[in-house]
Amino acid sequence: MNNTVQNFDNEIVRLDLSGKKHHIGNIVELGNDLIVLFNGTDYIYIPFDHILNLAIDKDNKDEISEPFESPRIISNENKNDLTLTTVLTQARGMFVEIYVTNNQPLTGYISHIMNDYFIFHSPVYKTLNIATKHLKWLIPYNNNNKRPYGLSEHEFAIQPYNEPLLNSLKEQVEKMQNELVVFNLSEKLHHTGKIKNINGLIVEIETARNVSTFLNLLHIKTIHRA
Fold first, then answer.
1. Nearest to 132 by CA among 96, 105, 168, 172
2. How far apart are CA 91 and CA 3, in angstroms?
3. What residues does 38 pair with on adjacent strands?
4. Is 130 within 8 Å of 40 (Cβ atoms)?
5. Residue 192 and residue 5: Cα distance in Å, rounded?
6. What's the alpha-carbon Rg for the chain, to the nearest Å?
7. 3-class SS of residue 11
8. Which of 12, 13, 80, 106 is the most exposed, having the fewest neighbouring CB atoms within 10 Å of its CB?
9. Which of 215, 214, 223, 221 is nearest to 181 (CA)?
10. What average pLDDT does range 51-70 have in this prediction?
11. Of all helices (H) and strands (E), which one includes residue 170?
């Protein structure tokens, strides 16, 4: 895909993404598994896995300004291609906006990157476990002194996270057995409940009406304690 995308250098493009989302901007860098797009305001890091199609957008050719400053997350000194893992690593402790599910961009910061998930701290949802493969984009704040929602450092500070973490999201879910949790930002009513059992890739949760529902672990995008 990289060789094809290189043909779009200096062109304004439209990227249609899974979840009926899209972004328009100028491609400023290509990584092994992501594209960096500048939309006139922000640098947007978009994994290839969620790009459905790409096309030149002639209607917006004059609407996207040139970048006024360098991106905060860049290739390393050896100019090795960016990967999603290196982007997440560089973004640790940086205020960012991410999009995963439920038409709700999340703002906050990343503290830990594990094998297939990362820990994200939000002033709204507190601490979330987010499946890396479901991350659709990441936008670093241009200025880390600006905090989400205009909160003060006292109201939302970057702090050490000392809870022991397991390597995989499945192990994290197993650790939360018998706890009340919210999956996928409560995208559906049955995504909130107490974890009763995990059998292979099937997670059984008990809802508020004491009914068991069964979720496929592969489709769990986020999880946080209620």
1. 168
2. 27
3. 26, 43
4. no
5. 40
6. 19
7. coil
8. 80
9. 223
10. 81
11. helix 169-175
Model-wide pTM > 0.90: yes
How many Å apart are CA 153 and CA 87, to the nearest integer?
25
Nearest alpha-carbon partner for 222 in 83, 122, 148: 122
Give me the residue label for tokens 């946080």: 224
Express each pLDDT in 112-166 by its tens digit: 999 999 999 999 999 999 999 999 999 999 877 789 999 999 999 998 899 999 9
User: Token pair of 98, please?
Assistant: 């991410």
Total Cβ atoms within 10 A of residue 123: 14
Give the residue from 66, 84, 77, 78 showing the smallest Cα distance to 28: 66
Q: By the 8 A CB rule, do 94 and 109 touch? A: yes
Residue type at 192 in one-letter notation: T
Q: What are phi and psi of 225, to 5 degrees?
A: -70, 140
